């Protein structure tokens, strides 16, 4: 009986070690902080913008400082549009709504301290589909709010990736200014 327990524990340990080895061998690693090409940035968001607050938190966690004024910042992110929308996707046989499509549309541009465009006007559109049931109105409203929060987090990650990708454009400009 004792040998069976030991054999079971050994096989579990062996399985965990194999899983750890496979995960480390495939290159899997957690997403770390964004590698942003500037030390300071100004975010042109309205003060009560949920996207602005989350983006500011993520940028500061990556190292750069978010400034309150644009004049001292190395980069300036300007919000051109930020809109949420809900459209009817499908109807049932009675003509009642069965599904909605939720959209978050965000457009921004980034300039450097001299006013040169680093990232031209860039539009990001995120879409989610939600089913609808009039008998579960409150639950569906809560689900919609949860989906919008998820879309907001996805939007912030996409903005951070685009800011990180602008690294080559900023380094080219700095090299040209140094010559």
What does this structure look like?
The chain is built from 4 helices and 5 strands. With 179 residues, it is of the alpha/beta class. The chain has 2 domains: 1-30; 37-178, Double Stranded RNA Binding Domain. The protein has a 5-stranded mixed β-sheet, covered by helices on one side. It is flat and about 75 Å long. The chain starts with a helix and ends with a helix.
Offer a few descriptive terms.
five-stranded mixed sheet, Double Stranded RNA Binding Domain, 179 residues, 4 helices, alpha/beta
Named CATH architecture of the largest domain: 2-Layer Sandwich
Q: What is the count of β-strands?
A: 5
Number of helices: 4
- Which strand order do you get reading across the main beta sheet? 2-1-3-4-5
Write the layout of secondary structure elements.
Elements: H1 2-25, E1 40-44, H2 50-62, E2 65-67, E3 75-91, E4 97-112, E5 117-131, H3 137-165, H4 167-178
Parallel strand pairs: 1-2, 1-3
Antiparallel strand pairs: 3-4, 4-5
Task: Describe what is shown at a glance.
With 179 residues, the protein is α/β, with parallel strands linked by helices.
